[in-house]
Amino acid sequence: MRRTGRRPGNPDTREAILAAARSAFAEKGYDGASIRAIATSAGVDPALVHHYFGSKDKLFLATMNSPMDPLDLITEAAAGSRDEIGEKFVRAFLVIWDGPAGAAGVALLRSTVGNEWATTMFREFIITQILRRAVPKLGLDEAEGQLRVTFAASQMVGMAMARYVIKVEPLASAPIDVVVAAIGPTVQRYLTGNLPGVFDGTGAGG
Amino acid sequence: MRRTGRRPGNPDTREAILAAARSAFAEKGYDGASIRAIATSAGVDPALVHHYFGSKDKLFLATMNSPMDPLDLITEAAAGSRDEIGEKFVRAFLVIWDGPAGAAGVALLRSTVGNEWATTMFREFIITQILRRAVPKLGLDEAEGQLRVTFAASQMVGMAMARYVIKVEPLASAPIDVVVAAIGPTVQRYLTGNLPGVFDGTGAGG
Question: What angle do CA A165, A166, A168 make, to 5 degrees?
Fold first, then answer.
């Protein structure tokens, strides 16, 4: 007996799962959406969701058309010396975005701020795919790590906006090495540097 | 004889000038658009454009619904000690965006990336209203200044995106003093710091 559009390997199945996942993540957020519920909604077995996408994280990244898995960048940055995290992360990011995947990144950023729903999903993306993973992976202090990573994320989002979306010169055409030399130390400082006034509750002074 | 909708003080006149200005800036860019042509297109005397908006810069800012004139922030940052430029600029920016004008800023950022036209206008905004003014006002080296300011702009855009558009915590709710303590030194370093590998053509090394 033939089951229409629901067989493994059928592109319709993949699309049906993605559509169900988009709705679920949008309605319930990343944590509230379950693979089981998404599978039910798509009319497939939960095992098929895993077969197609591997994990809830990968499924979420697929619904957002993310040009990369931030975990790969975090893992790469965390692999070497602790004082090279910033440089390595910025370089890995630029290599991906300067390449063919950059167009998907620009589309993600553009859609992100286009409407409230997309913004909410991007916030979930930053929280679940970057913050939660970066703090333990980079061995950051639990109490300080969240704020440190959001500062780093602010610089990465701004760099991507300036270089790839707004395309303001001379930053847009600057060689990767030059951008790494400028922005790598910023990310490094946010993640591991001494930040007087940030965690001691005294503010920046004046 | 009564001239409809073109009298001084008539809100229609202001709107007609703004509409003509938006078209002119979009078609010809900031430099290519002239007050005279905008006035002709709006059916008013050029003196009336100056009467309503004061200058081409102010007219341009009005067409973009900018929550502030970046020149005010640059002037404020440049007023004190040279090593406090970053802190002062970030603080002045946060005070404005944390206030009632912040909503206009968010709308500007959202519209900016929504379509190619708006992105082009925002690039013009950064170039004409920030880059051109910041380099001389802050006394930056002419050869290095453009790149330095775009790095600073990337951090400011990213901070605004993270705090006001994406609203990712804990950055979104962090006190101004805390954000200034973290991001002020970044902007300071981009503008006036020693940046090995950025201007010597050797790259970041590694």
Answer: 130
pLDDT at B66: 87
B167 contacts B106 by C-beta, under 8 angstroms: no
Low-confidence ranges of chain B (pLDDT < 70): 1-9, 201-206
In this complex, the residue of A109, A153, A204 whose CB is nearest that of residue B180 is: A204
Cβ-in-10-Å burial (0-12, 13-18, 19+) of A58 comes to: middle
Helix and strand counts by DSSP (H, E) for chain B: 11, 0
Residue pLDDT, tens place only, A147-198 = 999 999 999 999 999 999 999 999 999 999 999 999 999 999 999 999 999 9
**Could you report the per-residue pLDDT of A74-90, keeping only the tens digit for each?**
998 889 899 999 999 99
Angle between helices A56-63 and A46-53 in degrees, nearest 10:
70
DSSP state at residue B199: S
Quote the tokens at residue A169.
């010169």
pTM to 2 decimals?
0.88
The predicted complex's ipTM stands at 0.87
A120 touches chain B (CB under 8 A): no
Q: If you average pLDDT over every residue of chain B, what do you get?
A: 89
In three state form, how does the secondary structure of B138-170 look?
CCCCHHHHHHHHHHHHHHHHHHHHHHHHCCCCC
Q: How far is B113 from chain A (nearest CA, A)?
A: 5
Question: For residue B174, what are its two tokens?
Answer: 């962090």
Q: Judge if the upstream peptide bond of residue A170 is cis by omega within 30 degrees of 0.
A: yes
Q: Which of residues 159-198 of B touch A (CB under 8 A)?
A: 159, 161-163, 165-171, 174-175, 177-178, 180-186, 189-190, 195-198
Distance CA B195, CA A67 (A): 30
